[in-house]
Amino acid sequence: MSTAQGIIGNRYRLERSLGEGGMGQVFLASDTLFHHKLVALKLLKERMAENEGIRRRFDQEVRVCAALSNINIVQVTDCGVTEEGYPYYVMEYLDGRSLSSILMEEGRLSPARAVNIAIQICNGLAAAHEGFEYQGRRVTIVHRDLKPENIFIVDSGMGELVKILDFGIAKICSEIQSTLIPTTQQGMFLGTAHYSSPEQIRVEPVGPASDIYSLGMMLYEMLSGTDPFGLVAEGNTKMQAWLKAHLNRPPIPLRQQPDCEHISPALEAVVMRCLEKSPDRRFPSAVALAAALQTAIQENRTVVTAPLGTTSGIPWGWVIACLSVILVAIGFVIWLLATPSKKEECTFESDPNCYCEKQQKLPNPDSRCSAI
Ligand SMILES: Nc1ncnc2c1ncn2[C@@H]1O[C@H](COP(=O)(O)OP(=O)(O)OP(=O)(O)O)[C@@H](O)[C@H]1O
Ligand SMILES: [Mg+2]
């Protein structure tokens, strides 16, 4: 590298650390070959084995991720391996906040905001799950590590724009790890426990339904501020407890969580379906989930007008709708009573126009009707 001089791949100058996660560290860097444009560079922790085949495979997999282009997925632009053997990849630099820091600050989000974020995540997932062309073949990618830390929110000027980070990277990292860890430990679950699907924990093959489960976990947290197994409330942080809960513990219905009565039953049903233990019982695709969320949030808007945190449970939407109908009916009756029945009551003295009209004649200035 020249990692010592803070230059990676003879090109990217590291400016400062943006943060660190389980798989590596992300730096703000400037691209010295391209107008010193700011980029984000993720340097993976796991050193890659001195094996040309593995390096080629890493390169290939990151290039596939780079070919995935969608407004809701962070754009990967380059990758490589440092002289010391640490893999890295480069992506667009985002000026915003992660969903985890938003949740840490705000606790939970309104249904409209949570659903807006979730629908944008669905849009990104749909692009990767449905597949795209790469070097003449169709490839699909499952994220495998959806969690609030990997969801970035940028202020687009027209509302919140969601960017999914680390698409497909979990698979690449577990492949690098599997070349390094002893064979006795292979086949063990190596991941983030809080948002992982039951099939991931069982180390079975995973498909789009696994990402839908993780998104369901995030939606539940965005809406309630807690987890569906009551582990946060119990103060249980043990990894084993989370793994067991995903596998066996039935999730608590969303509306039973404190201050969640304002969430519509339809929205609750969508979230709970994402959390089904069996992948077959979840939504068949991210597109289907987005459509269900769209319908459910409309119901949430018409039925519920109580603000976030209101616990009265009064269906204010219905109360206001009924009052409006009653007011319109009263107004109509008053109008009918106040309007005189002109055709029946008018005389020539009271209204020559009306009288002459009844007689099929025209009024004239000397107060006589003249024949038409
Ligand atoms: N493209 C980017 N632009 C700006 N900030 C970023 C970008 N990518 C990551 N970050 C920030 O860098 C920090 C570290 O990200 P990183 O992905 O290493 O952590 P993580 O998601 O918690 O862990 P993991 O390694 O499991 O993905 C996070 O705070 C994230 O918000
Ligand atoms: Mg990450």
Rg calc: 31 Å
Q: Regions with pLDDT < 50 over 5+ consecutive residues?
A: 304-317
Helix content: 40-55%
Order of strands across the widest beta sheet? 1-2-3-4-6-5
Average predicted local confidence, pLDDT? 84
CATH class term of the largest domain: Mainly Alpha
What's the architecture of the largest domain in CATH terms?
Answer: Orthogonal Bundle
Main structural class? alpha+beta
Number of strands: 13
SSE succession: EEEEHEEEHHEEEEHHHHHHHHHHEE
CATH topology-level fold name of the largest domain: Transferase(Phosphotransferase), domain 1
Number of helical segments with 4 or more residues? 13
Shape summary: elongated
Query: Roughly what fraction of the amino acids lie in strands?
Result: 15-25%
**What would you give as the CATH superfamily of the largest domain?**
Transferase(Phosphotransferase) domain 1
Characterize the main sheet: 6 strands, antiparallel
Please provide a written account of the structure:
The protein is of the alpha+beta class. The protein folds into three domains: 1-93, Phosphorylase Kinase, domain 1 (2-Layer Sandwich), CATH 3.30.200.20; 96-311, Orthogonal Bundle (Transferase(Phosphotransferase), domain 1); 340-372, no CATH class. The chain is 41% helix and 17% strand. It contains 13 helices and 13 strands. It has helices spanning 52-67, 99-106, 111-130, 169-180, 198-201, 208-224, 231-234, 239-248, 265-274, 286-303, 316-338, 342-345, 352-358, and strands spanning 7-8, 12-20, 24-31, 37-44, 76-81, 87-92, 96-98, 132-134, 137-139, 151-155, 160-164, 361-363, 369-371. Strands 1-2-3-4-6-5 form a six-stranded antiparallel β-sheet, with helices on one face. A hairpin with a 4-residue loop joins strand 10 (151-155) and strand 11. The protein is elongated. It starts with 6 loop residues before the first strand and ends with a strand. Mean pLDDT is 84; it is low at 304-317. The site of adenosine-5'-triphosphate has 20 residues, from strand 2, strand 3 and strand 4.
